[in-house]
Amino acid sequence: MAFSEDIVRLCERFGLTELPDEGPVVERKDVVAFAHALKDELGFFFFVYCVATHYPADEKTEQPDRTLVTYRVRRLPIPGVRPTETFPFRLWVPTGDTTPSLTSVWAGADWQEREQFDLVGTVFEGHPDLRRLMMPEDWPGHPLRREYAIETQHFPWR
Questions:
Q1: Which of 11, 15, 56, 106 sits between 20 and 30 A of 4, alpha carbons compared?
Q2: Rounded Cα distance, 105 and 37, in Å
């Protein structure tokens, strides 16, 4: 997937030279400024999704325990100028650390960040109401983390 020239220029401004199809990896310290630039300068007004994926520590590659947070935003077309466009971007969050919330940029990030907090355990610093969304408040752990033990009884098919 080739990104438009204005996106490439914005990425270069933030030192993002690698632009794979799944989106560039933004530094956590820059993510709010990057998001504001996408919205205010390039017109990405629509927040599509936020997904957190837990990656346990890997001794072979010496990667630490961490979470990859992937965002996707969209801008509408301008007839005769540009088509509609979606843009993904990502950031790594070490386990036990936090990442800035993007609710100050896109209100649509609110419940999606809450869902990722609830199911994966990613803490979004500055979120206005970061509490469990689907699981009970007293639920132990986060069920979409790789180390979460599944201790449910499986019934045989009849």
A1: 106
A2: 10
84 burial class (0-12, 13-18, 19+ CB within 10 angstroms)?
exposed
Query: Looking at the domain that runs over 5-125, which CATH code has it been given?
Result: 3.30.460.80
State pTM to two decimals: 0.89
Give the model confidence (pLDDT) of 19-71 as tens digits.
999 999 999 999 999 999 999 999 999 999 999 999 998 888 888 999 999 99
Q: What is the DSSP letter of 10?
A: H
Residue 43: which region, alpha, beta or left (left: phi > 0; alpha: psi -120 to 50)?
left
Q: Where are the domains of the chain?
A: 5-125
User: What is the distance in angstroms between the CA of the first residue and the CA of the last residue of the chain?
Assistant: 47
Amino acid at 41: E
Question: Minimal CA–CA distance to 97: which of 60, 138, 54, 66?
Answer: 66
Name the nearest CA neighbour of 113 among 63, 155, 51, 67.
51
Q: What six digits make up the tokens of 78?
A: 């301008």
For residues 39 and 62, give the distance between their C-alpha atoms in angstroms, rounded to a whole number.
Answer: 36
